[in-house]
Amino acid sequence: MAKIKRPVTEMLFPILQPNLAGLARLAAEATHADEGHLIEFKAIKARSLLNKTLSKRRYIFELSINPFRGCEFGCKYCFARYTHEFLEPAPITEVPKGTYDVPQQSWALKFEREIYLKENAAWLLEQELKKIGPEHPIAMGTVTDPYQPIERRVGITRSILEVFAKQEGYSLGIITKSSLIVRDVDLLQKIAARNKLVVHHTITTTDAALARKMEPRAPRPDLRFAALRKLRQAGITAGVLCSPLLPGINDSSRSLDAVASRAAAAGASFLGAHPLFLKSCSRPTWMEFVREQFPALAPEYARRYAHADFADAAYKKQMTALVKSVCRKHGIGERSNVPLVARAQDAEPEQNSEVKKEPKAARFREPQALLFA
Predict the structure, then answer these.
(1) DSSP string, 314-339
(2) Measured between alpha carbons, how far is 199 from 175 in angstroms, rounded to an integer?
(3) Going by C-beta distance under 8 Å and a sequence separation of 6 or more, which residues neighbour residue 235?
(4) d(CA 3, CA 196)
(5) What is the reported pTM?
(6) Side-chain half-sphere exposure of 92, counting CA atoms within 13 A
(7) Exposed (0-12), middle (13-18) or buried (19+): which is 207, by Cβ within 10 Å?
């Protein structure tokens, strides 16, 4: 199992340290673990690995695992930058809906520049799985990519998979943009043999130049499709998430058709796509990117997201029809309405606190909330 070397450090002038609590305190106590270009990695003492999140959209619970806090890929549209808000020593001010000209927040940039590595992740998971039953679907990578580049050196995600490889009857969904996942094919096969496993490969475009702009440190699309092919050849249920759909950028029939064509050629089990979800925390980063790279689209985004974080119903309906169309054309199954551990309708079977058992009748009565939707 992965272990992070923690250097011995002393706190200078401890009496002058601010009175921090919760994640802000853990972040302040985190120690330097590694570094990359413009990125610092810190080891953090996680108190729990399984997160239980109440979706405001569907009013249901979802269990998730994120081996890291923060993500090196730096995707411009990422909705998860809010997770670094909790590491700030003072409360932050949300960007009001309809406000688009504010600069990127410092903590939003830290999301891709200051990455926290969760210590003892495998051990924590082993302890927490003893408290829940296999009926709880688990999703890994809902907020940060479990296969971002630092994983190659620290192996936290692999240590987590080693734990699941010893389990039986669980449902696990993995979401990633990385081709590094093929390193763990051996473990994925072991997990799939005794559990339900689905891998969701996020591929938003086949255009490498566009992908480099939107997802600056993620692997090229062709490398992701190649990884998808290897997973399918290994017998793993795996498909494509072409999410988020970005108005005027990757939401045309031509763009989606290209993704679907490559997905089909790779043997994808399913394809799904959902419109951009523009939270307060990600709005300045995304709008700054649009103004720089697609200035003609800036007024359109201001109009679409003036009063809501979600795309309007008409646009969602249009995109749903388009996705269905390209899936039919290329013979790919559609992603089910139960995400993360979902399966295509005709594919093989299938997914912020310590988990406590609820009464059986209260568990997962509805489908889990869709990513980016």
Answers:
(1) HHHHHHHHHHHHHHHHHT-EEBPSS-
(2) 6
(3) 189, 192
(4) 28
(5) 0.79
(6) 20
(7) middle
**Cβ-contact 39, 113 below 8 angstroms:** yes
Q: Comparing 36-40, 135-139, 294-298, which segment has the lowest mean pLDDT? A: 36-40
The token pair at 203 is: 């591929």
- Element containing residue 283 per DSSP (H, E): helix 283-293
Extract the tokens encoding 9.
Answer: 């450090």
pLDDT digits (tens, 9 = 90+) for 83-133: 756 655 455 566 666 655 665 566 677 888 888 899 999 999 999 999 988
- What are the strands of the beta sheet with 333-334, ordered from one edge? 50-54, 61-65, 138-140, 171-176, 196-202, 238-241, 270-272, 333-334
Amino acid occupying residue 211: A
Model pLDDT for residues 21-55, shown as the tens digit of each residue: 444 444 444 444 454 557 888 888 888 999 886 65
DSSP letters along 92-141, please? Answer: PPPPPTT---SPPPHHHHHHHHEEEEETTHHHHHHHHHTTS-TTS-EEE-
Domains and CATH numbers, the chain: 14-349 (3.20.20.70)
Are 373 and 55 in contact by the 8 Å Cβ rule? The answer is: no
- Rounded Cα distance between 351 and 174, Å, is 8
Taking the C-alpha atoms of residue 200 and residue 347, their distance in angstroms, rounded to an integer, is 14
Give the amino acid at 225: F
